[in-house]
């Protein structure tokens, strides 16, 4: 432990020394925000979080070329055309997503392979000198051709946060200075306001903030900037959101970011209202809204695009950092632990384009959510490549936001999981390591051990989940006498000595939630529980993006799944814990046993695919429920550990 702590001190010392040499601030500090991100190199994921990132490394993140076009090209180091000598923006959007996820995963793992893979792209763009001062490929074609910069330049932001290279800021400033604010008004292009605000925070150059405000004002001024398929966006109104889900979720954070730098409350109000409307009409039990590709409302057959497994934790992460409201952290955990992990193979070698709380079959022809027939199969790459790039980001985003810095030289434990943080805390900026030991989200106990060369006073905030009814906090084994309220951050403002241990207890109770068409679901803590459908697993052949090393996989039900739950309240659910110490998303440490009966007339939907050939798809609840009247017990497991599942059941 002493050796590890000495290394920590050396790392901090070198960072501070280098930081004194640069001409810009080391990090942005939005004046009207609440929390700030740490460098990803300050965070050490342990336990299952570390294993997840290792799966990313040995899977798609480390071998993204296995997913095919455009990831088997030079990506941002090359000119990619569509065969007509036109350089369209799509492949740069898709590969930009990947680079962002790869560099974050690399720094979180301290992995030179992933870092080098991402920095090949970053350094090429940084060092390539375009005559007009702009970054990346020139004259991208198509509407929203400035949108790819948003995803890709997040990797520049990460690289600066880690290494404080002023050349990154110089290049980004030069790039954005070649544009007028109005040039970013058109829908997805507006998302560049994130980078412009960040640059303002780093440099103090008000022209960047001005461009961002002008872009948003222009976006709001004319429907033509918000028109996609005849639909519209108005975050301040009570209109039912019907827009493209990814676009809406990416853009809705922009007014909140503007608020954090300007203090104009109307910006924050618009963002919060826009999100509230989306959640009211589209939020599914998985923690991610229906979005295939547009919002489609709430039903037992609704699903979501995999891109939104990353956009939700990222946008909600901004809301958490800006407002300091703990409910955003609850929402991030729910999205990642359920929808996120439930849309991938556990070795991270394949993902779905569309996934859903209820998915009874996942084959090359079973997609019931529109567009390409194969979008619910587990594939390394899909017909449209955005999700394949984006899936690499959701867990790095989660880990990157687990620990947040406070404005009073303190620290907040915002999202939970086995990890450690190295930070300079207190007015003296004393190097401190806090190690979080837990099996959360399966464990109800989270302990934090403090390592410091000398005693130091700093505020230590703990997020108290909103779903926890009886939380408690102990220090060195002694329970504190304080009002620890669910749904808030609790602050321990005290002097911490080396070896001090803080323990947070978050008892998880079962909750029954109600859904349309008399549907019900079962939740416990941040996890939604599903019936895991026994399945046959078949390798996909005759598909270019399915190989021996990275095979596509189809799943077909091999046993009955058509259950109705006989659950009236939480007392009908039995919680069964086991001693599983392996990877928890492959064999769950917690199982819920519930009473159920079969519905004889609930079967797979018999239909035809786009070629007119017979296929089967996930079906809605039967209008008339023909119960067997034979009670039996079935076991539910965490949503994220399943491939085929029933999550929303017909109720009594």
Question: How would you describe what is shown here?
Answer:
- There is one protein chain.
- Helices cover 31% and strands 20% of the residues.
- The protein is an alpha+beta fold and 652 residues long.
- Strands 15, 16, 17, 20, 21, 22, 25, 26 and 27 form a nine-stranded antiparallel sheet that branches.
- Strand 7 and strand 8 form a beta hairpin.
- Helix 2 packs across helix 3.
- The protein starts with a helix and ends with a strand.
Topology:
Layout: H1 2-19, E1 35-37, E2 43-45, H2 47-58, H3 90-109, H4 112-127, H5 147-163, H6 166-177, H7 193-203, H8 206-221, H9 245-262, H10 265-282, E3 304-305, H11 308-323, H12 327-340, E4 354-355, H13 386-390, H14 394-400, E5 403-406, E6 411-413, E7 419-425, E8 430-437, E9 445-452, E10 456-464, E11 472-475, E12 478-479, E13 488-496, E14 501-505, E15 510-515, E16 519-524, E17 527-532, E18 535-539, E19 553-557, E20 563-565, E21 574-577, E22 590-598, E23 605-608, E24 614-617, E25 632-638, E26 645-646, E27 649-650
Parallel strand pairs: 6-10
Antiparallel strand pairs: 1-5, 2-7, 3-4, 5-6, 7-8, 8-9, 9-14, 10-13, 11-12, 11-14, 15-16, 16-17, 16-27, 17-25, 17-26, 18-19, 20-22, 21-22, 22-25, 23-24
Helix pairs in contact: 2-3, 3-4, 3-5, 3-14, 5-6, 6-7, 7-8, 7-9, 8-9, 9-10, 9-11, 11-12, 11-14
């Amino acid at each position: 432990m002493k050796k590890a702590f000495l290394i920590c001190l050396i790392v901090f010392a070198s960072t501070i020394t280098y930081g004194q040499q640069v001409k810009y601030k080391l990090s942005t500090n939005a004046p009207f925000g609440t929390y700030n991100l740490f460098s990803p190199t300050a965070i050490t994921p342990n336990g299952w979080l570390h294993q997840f990132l290792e799966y990313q490394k040995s899977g798609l993140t480390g071998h993204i070329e296995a997913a095919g076009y455009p990831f088997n090209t030079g990506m941002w180091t090359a000119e990619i055309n569509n065969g007509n000598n036109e350089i369209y923006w799509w492949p740069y959007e898709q590969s930009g997503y990947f680079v962002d996820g790869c560099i974050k995963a690399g720094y979180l793992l301290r992995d030179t392979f992933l870092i080098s893979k991402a920095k090949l792209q970053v350094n090429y763009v940084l060092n390539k000198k375009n005559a007009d001062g702009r970054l990346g490929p020139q004259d991208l074609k198509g509407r929203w051709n400035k949108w790819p910069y948003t995803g890709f330049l997040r990797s520049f932001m990460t690289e600066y946060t880690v290494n404080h290279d002023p050349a990154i800021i110089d290049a980004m400033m030069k790039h954005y200075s070649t544009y007028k604010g109005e040039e970013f008004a058109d829908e997805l292009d507006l998302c560049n306001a994130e980078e412009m605000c960040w640059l303002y925070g780093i440099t103090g150059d008000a022209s960047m903030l001005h461009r961002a405000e002008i872009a948003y004002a222009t976006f709001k001024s004319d429907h033509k900037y918000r028109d996609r398929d005849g639909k519209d966006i108005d975050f301040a109104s009570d209109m039912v959101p019907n827009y493209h889900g990814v676009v809406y979720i990416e853009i809705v954070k922009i007014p909140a970011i503007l608020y954090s730098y300007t203090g104009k409350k109307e910006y924050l109000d618009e963002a919060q209202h826009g999100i509230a409307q989306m959640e009211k009409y589209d939020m599914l039990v998985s923690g991610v809204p229906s979005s295939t590709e547009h919002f489609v409302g709430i039903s037992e057959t609704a699903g979501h695009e995999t891109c939104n497994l990353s956009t939700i934790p990222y946008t909600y992460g901004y809301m958490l950092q800006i407002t300091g409201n703990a409910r955003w952290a609850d929402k991030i955990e729910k999205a990642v632990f359920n929808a996120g992990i439930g849309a991938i193979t556990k070795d991270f070698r394949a993902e779905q384009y569309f996934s859903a709380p209820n998915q009874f079959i996942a084959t090359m022809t079973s997609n019931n959510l529109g567009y390409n027939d194969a979008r619910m199969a587990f594939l390394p790459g899909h017909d449209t490549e955005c999700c394949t790039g984006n899936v690499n980001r959701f867990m790095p985003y989660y880990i990157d936001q687990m620990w947040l810095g406070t404005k009073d030289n303190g620290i907040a434990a915002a999202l939970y999981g086995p990890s450690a943080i190295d930070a300079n805390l207190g007015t003296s900026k004393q190097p401190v390591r806090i190690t979080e030991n837990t099996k959360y989200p399966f464990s109800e106990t989270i302990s934090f051990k403090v390592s410091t060369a000398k005693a130091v006073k700093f505020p230590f905030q703990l997020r108290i989940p909103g779903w926890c009814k009886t939380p408690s906090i102990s220090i060195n084994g002694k329970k504190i006498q304080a009002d620890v309220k669910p749904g808030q951050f609790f602050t321990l403002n005290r002097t911490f000595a080396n070896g001090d241990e803080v323990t947070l207890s978050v008892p998880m109770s079962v909750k029954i939630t109600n859904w349309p068409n008399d549907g019900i679901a079962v939740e416990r803590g941040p996890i939604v529980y599903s019936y895991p459908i026994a399945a046959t697993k078949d390798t996909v052949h005759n598909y270019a993006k399915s190989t021996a090393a990275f095979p596509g996989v189809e799943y077909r039900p091999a046993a009955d799944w058509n259950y109705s739950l006989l659950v009236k309240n939480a007392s009908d659910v039995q919680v069964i814990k086991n001693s599983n110490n392996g990877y928890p998303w492959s064999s769950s440490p917690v199982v819920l046993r519930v009473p159920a009966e079969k519905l004889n007339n609930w079967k797979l939907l018999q239909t035809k695919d786009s070629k007119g050939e017979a296929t089967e798809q996930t079906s809605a609840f039967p209008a008339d429920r023909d119960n067997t009247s034979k009670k039996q017990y079935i076991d539910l497991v965490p949503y994220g550990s399943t491939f085929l599942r029933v999550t929303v059941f017909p109720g009594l």
